[in-house]
Amino acid sequence: MANTSDIRNGLCIRYNHDIFKIVEFLHVKPGKGPAFVRTKLKSVTTGKVIDNTFSAGHKIDDVRVETHKYQFLYQDGEFYHFMHVEDYTQIRLLESALDMPQLLKEGEVLTVIINTEDNMPLSTEMPASVVLEVTHTEPGVKGNTATNATKPATVETGAEVNVPLFINEGDKIRIETEKGTYKERIKE
C-alpha cells in the first residue's frame, strides 16, 4: 500500500476494479482546506482516460510492474505482435493498449509494462520521438513562409502529421510521439 505522496507519472494503481496508469498529476495545497492530488488516470485495459482527485494521505493500491524492451514485428487486424529483445519470446497486444499505434513502424523498439503478479502486459511506452519518411504531401507555395504555415503530410505508417511548408516527399522527419506532432527534419 502506498499513499498520495508516492504518486508519480507512470505509476500503475488498482482503482475502481481496474488497473490505471497515472498520466498526469498535480499536488495542490490551497490556502484554505486540506491538500489534495489531482490526477489523470488511463485505464490499461480499455485505454479510457479519467480525471480523479485524491485527498492528501489517501491510501492507494499500487501494482508492482516490470518494464521490458520489445520490438514491433507486425500488425494483424486489431492485434500488434512484439518480440522480447533479449529472449525472443513473442507477445501480442490489442491496439487499445498502445499509446500512438499510428506512429509505430516495423522494427521499432518500445517499452512494455508487465504486471508481475500474473505476467500480463499492461501497456506500452513509445520512445520520445520516431523518425519516419514522408510518403505524400502537397508542394509548398513560394512566398507563403512568413506565417509559420503548415500543411498535412502522410508518413510511411499512414499517419497524417502537420509539417512546415519546406518538407517534401521523401524527407525524413522526427515526430514527437506524445502529441503526434512534427519536431524537425532529419538531414542525411
TrEMBL record:
SUPFAM superfamilies: Nucleic acid-binding proteins (SSF50249), Translation proteins SH3-like domain (SSF50104)
Function: Involved in peptide bond synthesis. Stimulates efficient translation and peptide-bond synthesis on native or reconstituted 70S ribosomes in vitro. Probably functions indirectly by altering the affinity of the ribosome for aminoacyl-tRNA, thus increasing their reactivity as acceptors for peptidyl transferase.
Keyword vocabulary terms for this entry: Cytoplasm, Elongation factor, Protein biosynthesis
Domain Elongation factor P C-terminal: 130-185
Pathway membership, UniProt: Protein biosynthesis; polypeptide chain elongation
Biological process, per Gene Ontology: peptide biosynthetic process
The gene coding this protein: efp
UniProt organism field: Zunongwangia mangrovi
Signal peptide: none
Annotated protein name in UniProt: Elongation factor P
Keyword set includes Cytoplasm: yes
Pfam families: EFP, EFP_N, Elong-fact-P_C
Cellular localization per UniProt: Cytoplasm
Record-stated family: Belongs to the elongation factor P family.
InterPro entries to which the protein is assigned, alphabetical: Elong-fact-P_C, NA-bd_OB-fold, Rib_uL2_dom2, Transl_elong_fac_P/YeiP, Transl_elong_KOW-like, Transl_elong_P/YeiP_cen, Transl_elong_P/YeiP_CS, Transl_elongation_fac_P
